[in-house]
Write a structure and sequence with these properties.
0% strand; single chain; 8 helices; mainly alpha
Length: 172
Amino acid sequence: LEGIVHFYCGTLPPLLVPSHLLVLLSLGLLVGQRGVSAMQLAYPCFLTALLAGLTVAGFSPAAKPGAETALLAVAACCGLLAALNVPVPRLALAVAALLTALVVGSDSGVENLNRQETFGALLGAGVGACIVLILVAGLAEMPRQQWQRIVVRIVGSWCAASALLVLALALR
């Protein structure tokens, strides 16, 4: 199929852009820790805001100036909450998912492509972001033994530390 390559290339930014990967990883850990009821609220909010963000990116493909800083700040907060295993209200998780998806979507713009290629790339970016979030949240929700829950908290602390280090370097 001609043009399908843009879809597959679009799935890579959630894995290759560090701020996107970090925020999706930390949000997935936090939502997954809270269980299926939190996922049932966070996923629809994430998907809706991601579609809105991708629409913005389709009309304005240029990089958004404060997107990386916003994503790293959310990643640091979500990672810290996951590391501390703090009970977060479902509404707060939904807001975090909404903000994350809106910024990730709007920051996924591609330049120098025609409309069809842009649509394919943005569709791929949306699918890639959803897959990363769902996989990480699913893995974070599965642990039954204490040591597995500790591993989730450790990964959350690494996400928070990484985001804070990059933020500190960027603000310096």
